[in-house]
Amino acid sequence: MRKSIALAGLIAAAIFLTCYSSCNNKKSSSGTAGADDSLKKVIERGSYLANHVAVCMDCHSKRDTSLYSMPIIAGTEGGGAGFAFGKAEGIPGEVTAPNITPFALKDWTDEEIIKTLTGGINKKGDTLFPIMPYPHYSGLAKEDVLAIVAYIRTLKPLESTVPARKFFIPAAMFGPLPANDIAQNKIPDPSDKVKYGEYMINAAACMDCHTPMGPQGPDFSKAYSGGFVFDVPMFKVASSNITPDSATGIGTWTEEMFVSKFKNNSSAEVVNRKPGRENTYMPWSMYGKMKEEDLKAIYAYLRTIKPISNKVEKYPK
Ligand code: HEC
Ligand code: HEC
After folding, report:
1. Euclidean distance between CA atoms 195 and 200, whole angstroms
2. Cβ(149)–Cβ(88) under 8 Å?
3. How far is CA 219 from CA 225, 229, 240, in A?
4. If you measure from the C-alpha of residue 240 to the centroid of ligand 2, how many angstroms do you get, rounded to a whole number?
5. Best substitution site from 237, 239, 254 to test ligand 2's pocket, by max atoms within 8 Å of Cβ?
6. Looking at the CA of 52, which ligand is closest?
7. Distance 228 CA to ligand 2 centre (A)
8. Whose CA is nearest to atom 24 of ligand 1?
9. Are the CB atoms for 75 and 307 separated by under 8 Å?
10. 201 CA to middle of ligand 1, Å?
11. Closest by CA position to 303, among listed 238, 254, 240, 248
């Protein structure tokens, strides 16, 4: 049953995308109300993922660094970041998340965007640095990738460009590229909370910030144990240990505590205060609007991973 609904959605998305590429300048009047409805649902799903789960918009928009968790500045959605990722994020160089509005992607086919999102190679053939979380997005179901593509095609075109990237190492050293074979990926049934939570936590790339840096880059044997220090000019903050270790992680947290942390930290009251140097790199304002069901599934998954003892000082000197 679920399978057939998903399939219908996928077909609708495929039809839409084909049409979008070839006829997006014509106002189609031939579509039935039913087709419009499923198209709306696809874009809604894409918007949800791009803003509150995969948080594309977080990296690809300008952000207000004076407010808590650096929310997006309205009107800059998808127009490219306002600052470059570099040393503070452990990157061997500098790279600014580019413009992904239709101004920049209008000549890209859906296949080219999909290959960028899930395979790490853009239209020009450049290998992207994996701070763009394509190694995670390669685990997304095709219907979710199509929904994200459909959504970013609806962004207001913003005529902006970002500085070119500079790396001190060749792209061949960026790490292995994922297989980019998303046709096999499925969204697990939400009734299987742990499996579904694993899908969502991967889509949200939580691991990228919550894994400590070793001498060779992220130390995945300590995934989710935190301690990645973001040392930016405005503040300095370390990511938390979110493994179920009771003493140093979130082992004593209930599901309710976990969900309310996201809800509270994304409330207008908290986001709009000026935290000064006690700011955070964790995009609470985006993730905080994740559906409770999805946050609960992520919590359920996090209960099943290995507890790792790693005491993290949130605001290191
Ligand atoms: C953690 C930050 C981050 C997130 C989250 C992120 N991106 Fe990116 N993205 C980047 C950076 C940085 C680059 C440039 C990488 C490079 O050139 O090496 C990039 C590159 C791209 C490109 C290639 C653009 C070009 O001109 O080459 C596209 C398209 C893109 N991202 C879309 C997305 C979408 C869609 C999502 C969400 C599903 C997303 N990104 C999530 C940081 C991010
Ligand atoms: C861009 C980096 C980044 C990403 C992505 C990120 N986090 Fe965080 N997270 C942080 C930092 C830094 C902190 C510590 C400061 C704070 O509490 O805001 C933190 C704190 C937390 C805390 C609070 C723990 C405590 O002890 O108070 C939880 C829970 C959490 N993150 C869960 C997640 C989950 C789940 C995801 C994915 C949905 C995620 N994070 C993605 C950077 C990140």
Report:
1. 9
2. no
3. 10, 14, 15
4. 6
5. 239
6. 2
7. 10
8. 98
9. no
10. 18
11. 254
Kindly give the confidence (pLDDT) of every residue in the chain, 317 residues in length, as a single tens digit, with 9 standing for 90 and above: 333 333 333 333 333 333 333 333 333 444 567 888 899 999 999 999 999 999 999 999 999 999 999 999 999 999 999 999 998 888 999 999 999 999 999 999 999 999 999 999 999 999 999 999 999 999 999 999 999 999 999 999 999 999 999 999 999 899 889 987 899 999 999 999 999 999 999 999 999 999 998 888 889 999 999 999 999 888 999 999 999 999 999 999 999 999 999 999 999 999 999 999 999 999 999 999 999 999 999 999 999 999 999 999 999 98
Which residues have CB under 8 Å from 228's CB, separation 6+? Answer: 90, 209, 210, 211, 212, 213, 218, 238, 239
**CA gyration radius for the chain?**
20
Residue 191: exposure state from Cβ atoms within 10 A (0-12, 13-18, ≥19): exposed
- Taking Cα atoms as reference points, which of 240, 258, 259 lies closest to residue 249? 240
And the tokens for 53? 């789960």
Cβ–Cβ < 8 Å for 99, 82: no
d(CA 292, CA 314): 26
Alpha-carbon distance of 10 to 144, in angstroms, equals: 9
Ligand 2 shell residues, CB under 6 Å? 204-206, 208-210, 230, 237, 239-240, 242, 250, 261, 280-283, 287, 298, 314
Q: Which residues line ligand 1 (CB under 6 A)?
A: 50, 54-56, 58-60, 85, 95, 97-98, 100, 113, 116-117, 122, 128-129, 131-133, 137, 148, 152, 165
Distance between CA atoms of 119 and 181, rounded to whole angstroms?
Answer: 8
- Say if residue 237 is exposed, middle or buried (CB neighbours under 10 Å; 0-12, 13-18, 19+): buried
Could you tell me the two tokens for 274? 């000026």
Pull the structure tokens for residue 229: 């220090």
